[in-house]
Amino acid sequence: MNRFLWPLIGFIVLVVLLAVGLNLNPREVPSPLVGKPTPAFALPRLDALDKTFSPDEMKGKVWLLNVWASWCVSCRQEHPILVEIAKNKAISLVGLNYKEVRGDGSFDMDKISAESEKAMAVERASAWLKRHGDPYALSVLDLDGRVGIDYGVYGVPETYVIDKAGVIRLKHIGPVTPDIFTGKILPLVAELSK
């Protein structure tokens, strides 16, 4: 009897854990970075490859870091909202162009030089922003995705709210919607801007 009871109890526990997991919202994955300083980086700017951007340049400002790529379907969905956000000059929006060439999976990266990858990334990302509008104060190129890894990027798009001290206060996974912007991001930005 005891020999059959333990597997049954284990099975019931497993079913309960799976049921709880299936009811969680995947967009609400807790980030260990919330409440911690932004990971440091210096990446080339999309608009001026000879210049770099570092989060330290934003110290003293509340700002948003938006992870995007031209191959990202959900990025196209959130982009009009970002363009509207950009009209509010009170919020600085910085773009992190994530794996522009590598991310769509249509290239054999072993056959592409680093310079060719950078040139393709600039061409594709710039054309996409020209076609859909450029909401960013500036955008940087994370060609290999290493900075994305440091920020714990699960997928594109993701948006981070960063305070004046350079501490991440919110990580939003998935497209920013008008409801998320007005109900979650804007109130937090207003509070942090005081």
Q: In a nutshell, what does this entry contain?
A:
Helices cover about 40% and strands about 15% of the residues. With about 190 residues, it is α/β, with parallel strands linked by helices. β1 (about 45) and β2 form a beta hairpin.
Structural notes for this entry:
This protein has 194 residues and is an alpha/beta fold. The protein is built from five helices and seven strands. The chain has helices spanning 2-22, 73-87, 114-132, 146-150, 178-193; strands spanning 43-44, 52-53, 63-68, 92-98, 138-142, 158-162, 168-173. The strands form two sheets. Strands 5-4-3-6-7 form a five-stranded mixed beta sheet. It is globular and about 70 Å long. The model has no long low-confidence stretch (mean pLDDT 91).
Summarize the topology:
Blueprint: H1 2-22, E1 43-44, E2 52-53, E3 63-68, H2 73-87, E4 92-98, H3 114-132, E5 138-142, H4 146-150, E6 158-162, E7 168-173, H5 178-193
Parallel strand pairs: 3-4, 4-5
Antiparallel strand pairs: 1-2, 3-6, 6-7
Strand content is 15-25%
**Tally of helical runs:** 5
Principal-axis shape: globular
Strand order of the largest sheet: 5-4-3-6-7
Summarize model confidence as the mean pLDDT: 91
Q: What distinguishing features does this structure have?
A:
194 residues; alpha/beta; 5 helices
